[in-house]
Amino acid sequence: MGTPAIAHFGTTIMEAAPPPGTRQQDVPLDGTLGRTLEFLDVLGFKPHIQNMYEGIGRQYIWRRGEPGDVDYVEQDNFTSYVAEPRPDTDGPRIGDTVFRLTHSNPTATLQALLDRNLITVSNEAELAAFLDGTADWLLMSAPQGQIYEFGVTQADTADNHCVYVWTDEARLEEVAGNFVEHFGMTRGDVEDFHGVARLLPLRRKSPGVTIGLLHHPTNRVLAPRWTDDIFKEAGFSHYRMGALDKAQTVAFTRQAFPDGGDVSFVYFEDSYLELVQA
């Protein structure tokens, strides 16, 4: 059986290289990495896979649940010894990504994250509404800088496994068409996204996933990506997608990293993908 097209997200974490002669696995899990793993622990994630890449960084893949669960999810936390913060901008950049995280008991879990100072919420009104039960979803930033949309577990995989990507308004239709062609997505109606963007949803029932193309309601021009180097930019996001015809999609994309067995690492439009066969 090949690598499955599941909810698998990843974010680059900046970490200093260990002193000469120190084994990577002996370096404490502290700093941003440690806080990110604590964040995942509160959400019910458990260690799954660990890899040490000498001279490059460390990788800790944690997961919650079992494959086949409607809310099964993996988070790939990998550190890079050359990562650095990107220059500030007054808004999101093309390709910036938001992942949805759901939980069976979101209110109590959110309070635990707040009590441990593990998240940042920029919209205080949305936070208050979520805590008093009048808002279903909340945008929050985790210790590694990744932004998540948080809410209660949904009944369908495609409503738990959601990825939102900031997209150039001028190319919105072209990008949407390519997702439809290569991944068998169905378009929905444009809707509001937390008051900060317009959202064009693209949904696939099986393997369940929703891709949301975010664009400014005022058609404001987005800043371009700072770099395509996933090792250089702290906070660089990636995710897994299953193609209808993987070979055809590989030919359409740019290679980001040498293939790893049945997984191809590619740039598809504004996203860095772990591409597998659906």
Please provide a written account of the structure:
- The chain is an alpha+beta fold.
- The chain folds into two domains: 8-87 and 226-272, no CATH class; 97-215, 2,3-Dihydroxybiphenyl 1,2-Dioxygenase, domain 1.
- It is built from six helices and 16 strands.
- An eight-stranded mixed β-sheet has the order 2-3-4-1-13-16-15-14. Strands 5, 6, 7, 8, 9, 10, 11 and 12 form an eight-stranded mixed β-sheet that branches.
- Strand 10 (191-193) and strand 11 (197-204) form a beta hairpin.
- The model has no long low-confidence stretch (mean pLDDT 96).
Element layout with pairings:
Blueprint lengths: L7 E7 L16 H12 L3 E8 L3 E8 L8 E8 L16 E7 L2 H10 L8 H8 L5 E5 L5 E6 L4 H4 L1 E5 L5 H12 L2 E2 L3 E3 L3 E8 L4 E7 L21 E7 L2 H7 L1 E7 L2 E6 L2 E7 L1
Parallel strand pairs: 1-4, 5-7, 8-12, 13-16
Antiparallel strand pairs: 1-13, 2-3, 3-4, 5-8, 6-7, 9-11, 10-11, 11-12, 14-15, 15-16
Q: Kindly, what is the distance between the CA atoms of the first and last residues, rounded to a whole number of angstroms?
A: 11 Å
Number of domains: 2
Shape: globular
Number of helices: 6
Can you tell me the residue ranges where pLDDT is under 50 for at least 5 consecutive residues? none
Strand fraction: 35-45%
Largest sheet: 8 strands, mixed
